[in-house]
C-alpha cells in the first residue's frame, strides 16, 4: 500500500505492507496535515507512517473518525477520567508513535473508532480530531452563553475554536493576520479583527508563542481565563501583567472522555450541525501521491492553506 513517512526532515511516499494484527482494518478516506506534524518532522520524527487526523471505512462499511491517542486504563490519569494526560496518549499515538492515517490502510483498536452520521462528507472525517482538540480545550473552562471570548491566531485550531464558541452562543472575536484567514472567518460568520479588544472573559491562545501569549494576557479581564491550545514549542515567559490581573492559565492537550461525555462525540455533533465548517477550513485537497507537494503547501504561510487534506481515492 502507499503510505507517507519522513526521514531526516523530508516527507516521502513509500510502499508498505497492508497492516496485519490486532484492531480493525480501516480503509482511509481522508487525512489532514497538522502544524504539529510539521514540528515533529523538523524535530526528526522518522519511520512511522504520518497522520493523526484521519478516518475512513471499516470492513463492514461504516464511516468512522479515529481517536489517534492511546490510554492504558490503569494510571492515575485514566482512573480520574483524564486520559489526555495518560502517558500512552503519546506513546501509543497513531501518526506519532504508531503508524498513522497518511496511508491507504491502518489498523485501529475498536475503542478508538467513532461512527459518523450517514451522508457525512468524507472530507469532514479528518476534521473530527482537531475539533475534538478544540472541544476539549473549551470544556476545560466555564464559559457561558453571551460571555465574551477572543481567539488569537486564525489557523485551523483558532478558527475551529471560534466556530465551537459561536455554536455555544459565546460572543467571540478572532485575531487574524492573512487575507485567507479573514475570508475563512467570514465563511464561518465570525468577527475577525487585526487586533484584540480588551476585557474579554476568556482568551484562547491558538499560536503558543510569546507574542500570542502576551496578546492574550492584555486582552483578558482581571481574573479571566487564558487557555493554551497545543504545544509550546519555544519557551514562553510570564509577565507581571499576568500576575497583576490574576489570570487563570489553563493548558489543554489532546481530548478526554468520562462516563457521560466524550470530546470526539461532541466534535462529531458540532460538525454535523455546522456544515459550513468543512468548506471554510479544508482549503486544499490532494491525492496521497502528491504528499510531498501537499506538505510544502501546508508549511508555506503564503499558500493560503488553512487545512490541507489528502485523499486516498482522488
Ligand atoms: Zn493535529
Ligand atoms: Zn493511563
Structure description:
The chain has 314 residues and is α/β, with parallel strands linked by helices. The chain has 2 domains: 2-126 and 275-311, Medium-chain alcohol dehydrogenases, catalytic domain (Quinone Oxidoreductase, Chain A, domain 1); 134-252, Rossmann fold (3-Layer(aba) Sandwich). The protein has 12 helices and 15 strands. The protein has helices at residues 35-42, 76-79, 88-91, 122-125, 128-139, 156-167, 179-187, 210-219, 240-244, 263-273, 276-281, 291-299, and strands spanning 2-7, 10-15, 24-33, 53-57, 63-66, 105-108, 113-115, 148-152, 171-175, 191-193, 200-205, 220-229, 248-252, 282-287, 307-311. The strands form 3 sheets. Strands 3, 4, 5, 6, 7, 14 and 15 form a 7-stranded mixed β-sheet that branches. A 6-stranded parallel β-sheet has the order 10-9-8-11-12-13, sandwiched between helices. The protein has a two-stranded antiparallel sheet with strand order 1-2. Helix 6 links the parallel strand 8 and strand 9 (171-175). Helix 5 (128-139) packs across helix 6 and helix 5 (128-139) packs across helix 10. The mean pLDDT is 95. It binds zinc ion (ZN) (2 copies). One zinc ion binds next to loops.
Amino acid at each position: 500500500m502507499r503510505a507517507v513517512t519522513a526521514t531526516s526532515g523530508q516527507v516521502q511516499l513509500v510502499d508498505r505492507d497492508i497492516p496485519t494484527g490486532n484492531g480493525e482494518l480501516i480503509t482511509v478516506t481522508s487525512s489532514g496535515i497538522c502544524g504539529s506534524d510539521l514540528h515533529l518532522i523538523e524535530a526528526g520524527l522518522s519511520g512511522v507512517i504520518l497522520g493523526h487526523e484521519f478516518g475512513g471505512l471499516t470492513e463492514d462499511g461504516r464511516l468512522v473518525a479515529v481517536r489517534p491517542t492511546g490510554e492504558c486504563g490503569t494510571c492515575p490519569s485514566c482512573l480520574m477520567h483524564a486520559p489526555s494526560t495518560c502517558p500512552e496518549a503519546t506513546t501509543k499515538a497513531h501518526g506519532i508513535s504508531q503508524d498513522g492515517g497518511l496511508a491507504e490502510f491502518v489498523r485501529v483498536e475498536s475503542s478508538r473508532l467513532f461512527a459518523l452520521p450517514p451522508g457525512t462528507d468524507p472530507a469532514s472525517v479528518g476534521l473530527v480530531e482537531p475539533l475534538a482538540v478544540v472541544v476539549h480545550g473549551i470544556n476545560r473552562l466555564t464559559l457561558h452563553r453571551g460571555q465574551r471570548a477572543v481567539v488569537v491566531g486564525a489557523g485551523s485550531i483558532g478558527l475551529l475554536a471560534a466556530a465551537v464558541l459561536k455554536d455555544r452562543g459565546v460572543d467571540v472575536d478572532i485575531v487574524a493576520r492573512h487575507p485567507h484567514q479573514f475570508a475563512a472567518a467570514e465563511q464561518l460568520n465570525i468577527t475577525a479583527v487585526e487586533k484584540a479588544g480588551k476585557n474579554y472573559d476568556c482568551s484562547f491562545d491558538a499560536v503558543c508563542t510569546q507574542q500570542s501569549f502576551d496578546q492574550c494576557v492584555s486582552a483578558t479581564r482581571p481574573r479571566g481565563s487564558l487557555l493554551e491550545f497545543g504545544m509550546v514549542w519555544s519557551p514562553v515567559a510570564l509577565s507581571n501583567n499576568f500576575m497583576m490581573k490574576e489570570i487563570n492559565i489553563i493548558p489543554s492537550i489532546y481530548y478526554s472522555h468520562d462516563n457521560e461525555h466524550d470530546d470526539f462525540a461532541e466534535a462529531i455533533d458540532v460538525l454535523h450541525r455546522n456544515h459550513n465548517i468543512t468548506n471554510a477550513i479544508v482549503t486544499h485537497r490532494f491525492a496521497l501521491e502528491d504528499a510531498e507537494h501537499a506538505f510544502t503547501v501546508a508549511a508555506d504561510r503564503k499558500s493560503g492553506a488553512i487545512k490541507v487534506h489528502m485523499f486516498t481515492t482522488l
